[in-house]
Amino acid sequence: MPELPEVERYRRLAESALFRAISSIAAPDPWFLKGGESGPDFRRALVGNRFVAADRIGKLLVLATERGPTLGIRFGMTGTLAVDGRVGVEDLRYAPRRHDPAWDRWSARFADGGSLVVRDPRRLGGVRLDPDLSRLGPDAASISPSALDSALRGSAAPLKARLLDQSRVAGVGNLIADEVLWRAGLSPQRPAGSLSANEARRLHRHLRRTIGYLIDRGGSHLGDLMDERRVGGRCPRDGAALVRSTVGGRTSWWCPVHQV
DNA sequence: ATTGTGGCCTGCCCGC
DNA sequence: TGCGGGCAGGCCACAA
Q: Are the C-beta atoms of residues A222 and A6 closer than 8 Å to each other?
């Protein structure tokens, strides 16, 4: 599913959509329009306008425009971005591989004939104008050690739940949370505020490093733990049978031996 | 405020 | 062969 690495790929792809005049908007699915705005609202804001910057905060893609309003795109679990028919990510875990035109939930057409299309089979994503960025914590790809500390300190919630909370740290999804905690040797069930200084440092290092590495590899499902995230899966580090349970409302897999 | 839960959405996979 | 139930999880509304 799209987590931070996939959205970063979409962001880079979206840079090829900048500085091109937008000639029309297709918004066939009202459900996909968030923030209370309608298709005509999107047309008024964007037709005749141009995207001038592609930013990403966590899993939110934000396209700034010349005339002011920004376009926020969320990809949910199965969303993908296509610019001029090129997709940002080919192999998206949990998403169908084939393409049905009905899954094009929102698109902008450019005067030069190209397009920017948001595809989302399961419709868990959405687009909106001027998304509220104040509700997002610092981006996981660039968060500082002290910012991570303050995101975790004093919390009795499970460590993994806190990492998944986008208002605390933006960009960590279920797969990356499992991968990072596995690498850092920390149980997802640990109270978030219970980490020692050394553990917090370790978590920060693995969070930053893992995200960078998954961006380079091309997807959140390409971590070392991922193939074992299944019934019968074993820890790639020590061979122990992985434990599966629900933490923070999400299916979680971890090693009972080295994640403490 | 903090934390936890349930539901939304729909394609896919398994068992019958 | 078709069918139904369960599952996947990002995000949000809501409850305690």
A: no
Distance A239 CA to C10 C1' (A): 31
**How many whole angstroms from its chain centre is CA A116?**
19
Mark whether A250 is an active-site residue.
yes
Give Rg (Cα) of chain A.
Answer: 19
Tens digit of pLDDT for each residue in A131-154?
988 888 999 999 999 999 999 988
Residue type, A193: G
- Strand C nucleotides where any atom sits below 7 Å of a protein CB: 7-12
> With 70 as the cut, is the pLDDT of residue A210 above it?
yes
Q: What pLDDT does A68 receive?
A: 87
Query: Cα angle at A148 between A142 and A154, to 5 degrees?
Result: 165
Report how far residue A76's alpha carbon sits from residue A126's, in angstroms, rounded to the nearest whole number.
Answer: 8
Q: Is A37 a catalytic residue?
A: no
| pLDDT for res A1 | 67
